[in-house]
Amino acid sequence: MQFEFLLEQVVNGLVLGGYYLLIALGLSLIFSVGGIVNLAHGAFYALGAYVCVELTRRLGFGASVVISPFAVALLGILFERFILRRFYTADPILSLLVTFGLAMVAEQAIRMIWGAAPVSTEIPQSFRGSVIVGDFLFSRYRLLILAVVAAILLGVWLLLQKTSFGRVVRAGIQRPDMVAALGIRLQPYMTAIVMLGVGMAALGGAFFAPITTVHPAMGAEIMTIAFVVVVIGGLGSFWGVVIAALLVGVVRGIAIHFEPAAGEASIYILMFLVLLLRPRGLLGERIEKFE
Amino acid sequence: MIRTSRRTLLRTGAALAGASALGFPSIIRAQAEKIRIGHLTPLTGFLGVIGGYAQLGVKLAAEEINQSGGILGKQIDLLSEDSINPATAATKAQRMLEQDGAAVLLGEISSASSLTIMQVAERNKRVFFSTGARSDALRGKNCNKYSFHCDIPNTVMVNAVGTALSQKGMVKGKKFFTLTADYIFGHDLLKAAKTFFGAHDANLIGDELIATDVTDFSPYLLKVRQAKPDVVCCNLAGNQVTNLVKQYAEFGFPYPLVGFNLNTGDAWAAGAGNLSGTWPTVWYHTLNNPASQAFVTAFTRKYGKPPENHAWIEYVTLKLLAEAISTTKSTDSSELIAYFEKQAQFDIGKARKAYFRAWDHQLVQEAYPFTVKPKDQMKDQWDMLVLGDAVPAANDPLEQIYPTKEQNPCEMKA
Can you tell me where the transmembrane regions are (chain A) (predicted)? Predict the structure, then answer.
């Protein structure tokens, strides 16, 4: 029985990891291609949640959870075009400062528009409750999230590996100078990557709006865990981030199963151990421009 | 050159002296005409949401007092800040007393921060009204002469809900699983809950201590299911409650969820379709009382939304403090303490008047259990709860639900 309970925590951890992945993958992509640590990434997650809550009142949850990430991704174009673009070649400390400042501006803007008190929304009735498969219990809603994350993951992987777009992006991560020498401008690709990244974060926010507190500081809350995942996974590696996200979810679940008090600390211990053994992260590549 | 600069220096000095001769007395006079009150409450972090309401409540009270001519002809100067965490709360409290010239301190929701402010108040021999902290220990082993406690303590919340649950046959012989906030407040609430379970033949089959920054409760919910309890009991705080309530609804467990702590702000944040069960409260905006309704009207007119229970407690605390200052004609802490210790009665917008109990400085007042309205009966997004009858019942003494001297001993140093 004890073993089944543990297994249940492992499976639940994988589901949770899938959700962390939505936020961490974009963060990792934006850093890998643009060299920018986007501290404002959490703000897009929060915006995704707020826009979803707002739209749900008019269009229902199903339509809102689809529209919200696209709306935020469009905002991502402005973000890339007018802010990030100025900092690709600048001192990294400047982009850290500007995105940090932007995160604060976004949080205050949310406070001004929607107020400091949380807004609420709920899961549609058809996705409530849990499904019991064998001895395992799953939240029906989280299974939906997992299915969507898996589909997105497959899409992003195909985009990066099997299309000419992906080839340029991957080349841009390793040798931006060579890409430029071949006469390819990386900027439009960067716009697309930022759109994709913040769109995924917004989708995470929209999905989690009905099951977590939607409040102005929620973006800052999620950033810590997203960074832990990116650091453990290693920069520039698609699968590194995927494995790290799932690992973080599972390790937290196992820790809470055996020693609840260590639940939140466990992921930082994991990060510490990974960095000790592999300073570049699990599957982190050697990226020349960052060395 | 030297001469010029010396002349300039002299002129500047003279100007400064002149300015101080003219200006300073007026500044001093301005200060003398005001009663400065230091207010601290969490505006960020897991209690930030309800802290926001607390600040609106105390501001409204100050505004009303000032508009009606102030206290003894003096205006209230309210200095309100984010208490952030226990260490910062203590630093800010010290600064407010020492540098800003606050006559008294007021506020706080976190029991951990309230405890550090209580120590500052005692060191400075200045009165502190802890408005929203609920840990029994603050009134018991940590009590001091300078601290007054306005919100209902954990034991009262447990008794209020426990009595309502007992009447529904949900306590005796039942298996409880508790989820507890991992800081002084939660530990204290769990202790009160255990006392209640012990006295009423209920079994506590599991408890999880949960860090205050946890937002995903799924691993804990799996442990709840593995334990197969009869009733799940929430001893969490702030955003934790909202997150748990939402995720509990998500998993759709058959075990009823009840709780010994819930603020209406957390209930509103959880949303209409997610909350169920029986919970305690110190006040709710639908309470049928003329004074309460007048406050609700004023608050709603000013802020466009009804007040939460922390807004109310801050409002009535500043009002009763103003009454005390008017009666004693003093802001001196020792005179205020002597006045409150005579157990002076105050109208706080409830059926029965409230008073600070002399031996532990607890504001003794009615409490209420509440249940959740069916969604189709709610008039608006705020109209979520159905208040039960006040506890203790009208004929029973108010102190019946409060911890006794033996249960929660408090020794105040003179």
Answer: 20-47, 59-79, 85-106, 143-160, 189-211, 223-248, 254-277
